[in-house]
Structure formats: C-alpha cells, structure tokens
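S1.2 Input.
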Amino acid sequence: MSSFPILDVVVGLGFLYLLFALACTALNEVIASAFSRRAKVMRQGVEQLFGDAKLTDDLYRHPSIVSLSSPGRKALKGPSYISADRFAAALSDLLTGDRPLSDPQALKAGIDALPPAPKRQLTMLLDAAKGDPDAFRSRVAEWFSEGMDRVGGWYKRGVQRQTYAMAILVVLVLNLDSVQLINRLWADSGFRAAAVEQARARVQATGVAELPASGEPVLTGMASLTDSETRLLSSLRGWADDRSRLTADLVVKGDSLGVRSAWLAGAAVTHLPGWIVTILAIGLGAPFWFDLLNRFMNLRNAGRASDEPRSKV
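S1.3 Output.
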C-alpha cells in the first residue's frame, strides 16, 4: 500500500478528470464529423479571406480542392484541411485561366477581373511580390496560413463552449460530484489503488507524447477507454445513494410532488459545489490532465516507499 494516500487521492482524481475529459473530446469529434463542422468553419474562413462568396465557390470547384472533399449523402463535403501551397496553386490557376501559372500578365488580368474586395487584397500581394508569379504564390500561402490560424482559434473556442455544454450534461446525468469522488478515493483504499494503477497504465500506454489540444483531432486510441477503465467508471456511485434516499422518503412521507421536489432541491444544493468543480475540471481538457498526471506520477514514484514495486514511469 502506498505511504502517500493524499498523493494517491490527487492522482486518482486527476485520472478520473482525464477520463471524463477524454469522453467529452470523443463526443466532440463525433459531433464535428457528423455535422462536417471543421469543413464548414474552414469554408467560412476562406470566404472571409476573400470577402467574396463567388470566388470562394469557384475555388472550391477547382479540381485540386475537389479532390480533398469527401462523399456525402447528396453531395461532396468540402475539405476540412487545405495546405497553404495547394491553396496558393489553385488560386493562381484560377486567376490565370488557360495561361501558364508563370504568366505575370495573365495573373494580373485575372486579379483585375475580380470584385473589389479580393481584387484589392490580391493586388497588394502581387505588388509585394513585385509582379513575380512564384513570389506571389508564396505570399498567398503565407496570407492563407495566417488566416487559417485565426480560423483555428474560432474552432477551438467553439469546441471549448461545446465541451462545457457536454460537461454539464454528463455531470448532471451521472452525478459526477467532485466532493463525493474525493471522499470515495480517501475512504475506499481498493478504489484508490485501482485508480492509481489505471493511471499508471494510461501514462505508460500513451507515452510522453502530448494529447491533442482542444479543437484538434484526437486519436482513437487516446480517447477510447480500456476494459479496466470502464469497470472503474462503472463502479462510481452516481445517483445510487440519492435514489435510495428518495425511496426512503417516498415510503415514509408518501409519493407526492412535494416530496419529490424537496428531494430534488436538496440533492441540487448538496451536489452543486461538487458539480461546478467537475465541470470546470473537464473544461480544462484532456491535455492538461494528462500532463498533470504525468507530473504527479513521477512525483509519486520518486517518493514511494522502499517496499513498493518499481514502475517504468
């Protein structure tokens, strides 16, 4: 048994937060994939760059962009990622038409034929490139990359809001009260030991590589839970104790709306602080908890008792 129960409680709690956050991350990926959210946000970003919907449509119909699309039920889904070089080459090809990409006159004529907003932006890039088509493509690639950095920020903020919304739903449905979790980890040495052991296994299996940041795709192996982790989560009490209290109240006081309302109000008041802590913890994201778990596992191993088995972590 560990000589550092407080540290084990911290490790176990951090591990549970990691699993909850991974579950929300996986749900985010499912929702993003089902609604093609990444592709839609990217298209909005490209349209904002151009300031013109028609030019965006024309670019998305270019063969090199269409080849990145995925089949949908009724039509192709736009790409969720376009490299800066491919974007620049496709735009230059669109502007020069049937003429070679290296033709500066064709490039300038194509830009001059654009609506005012994209014409002004691309003319500025062409002037900065001193009329050289190759330098122009490089400038366009840089411009696109900077724009996509902003788009990535939009997407991550949207994912963060969605994560908090899902965290609220999951916490309320499963009654993930941090106060209860801490009490369980402190009082139940078997549960605490299982959580620490599963935390060690997760760290070893994932390695030192960082988990994806919020808003970035998560690898299936990182988000999926092992059988042992699933059994650990299934052993959480959830609403079991509260339902027992409700059953007792219904037997003693009778089944009425007032009794049920009083039970619900009491449960909400009791669990609210723990719910808030859990929601905020899940909102920090899986990368945060994985990094913190790594640090605490290293601290625990460095200070373990001499009779504890050694770990590779």
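S1.4 Remarks. Strands lie at 70-71, 76-77.
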